[in-house]
Write a structure and sequence with these properties.
- There is one protein chain.
- The protein is α/β, with parallel strands linked by helices.
- It has a single domain, classed as Rossmann fold (3-Layer(aba) Sandwich).
- Helices cover about 50% and strands about 20% of the residues.
- The chain has 8 helices and 7 strands, in the order H-H-H-H-E-H-E-E-H-E-H-E-H-E-E.
- The chain has helices at about 1-15, 20-30, 35-50, 60-75, 90-100, 135-145, 160-170, 190-200; strands spanning about 80, 105-110, 130-135, 150-155, 175-185, 205, 210-215.
- Strands 3-2-1-4-5-7-6 form a 7-stranded mixed beta sheet, with helices on both faces.
- Strand 4, helix 7 (about 160-170) and strand 5 form a beta-alpha-beta unit.
- Helix 1 (about 1-15) packs parallel to helix 4.
- It starts with a helix and ends with a strand.
Length: about 220
């Protein structure tokens, strides 16, 4: 547990330069947020178990707390994620925006059944959420073009080399200085390290989550 906590702190510190006390404060904050955690559990054991029994937690609660902490530290105006599934990452990002009292999350997802994407997301957080249905190859470019500048980007859609590299390249050109490019499942192929090399920057890794800070 200690080594895991140290890895989490190191990852967040590498991307934000936050000190230990600040990081720990945000991690404790989300762990002790009873409204948020109770809402997740209610949706998971109720709606999720009955409607989508085969769906897992996707990005996972540990990485979810990392996303929350990054949002609390960076204070983003605009966050984009590709891939929603049950909505674990969406929930933690939205909770961070809610606590900041600022920001909007745009999520792109390809769903095969209406109402499937993001069923885990608590109702009280949805006011900062824009869900866009379709493929990221079709929806991401016009979204980025309309927004102009973004603060955080998270890839978690189709994990092919071509799609991951496409998303990184598209998002990077719109990412503000000091913004974060994040990617889940970076162990699937070499897209993340290849992209880091192409922009001449060192990426940070926590389990299968990669992060890159734009200078």
């Amino acid at each position: 547990m200690y080594n895991k906590q140290r890895s989490v702190h190191s990852f967040i510190r590498g991307l934000t330069r936050a000190d230990y006390a600040e990081i720990q404060g945000y991690l404790s904050e989300i762990a002790e947020n009873n409204d948020f955690n109770a809402s997740l559990e209610k949706n998971r054991t109720g709606y999720g178990r009955n409607q989508f029994p085969g769906w897992g937690w996707g990005i996972g609660m540990t990485l979810g707390t990392v996303l929350y902490t990054l949002c609390r530290k960076v204070k983003p105006d605009v966050v984009i994620e590709t891939g929603v599934a049950s909505g674990v990452s969406s929930s933690y990002i939205l909770c961070g925006l809610h606590e900041n009292n600022n920001g909007v999350l745009y999520s792109i997802d390809l769903s095969w059944r209406e109402g499937q994407s993001g069923w885990l997301v608590p109702d009280y957080l949805r006011y900062r959420w824009q869900l866009i249905m379709g493929r990221s190859s079709d929806k991401l470019p016009p979204l980025l073009g309309g927004l102009k500048t973004i603060d955080i980007f998270l890839h978690d859609s189709e994990h092919t080399y071509q799609n991951m590299l496409f998303e990184y390249q598209a998002a990077w050109t719109h990412l503000r200085p000091g913004g974060l490019l994040l990617s889940h499942n970076i162990d699937t192929n070499n897209a993340f390290p290849d992209f880091c090399e192409s922009v001449g920057l060192k990426g940070h890794v926590l389990d299968n989550l990669g992060g890159l800070l734009k200078n």
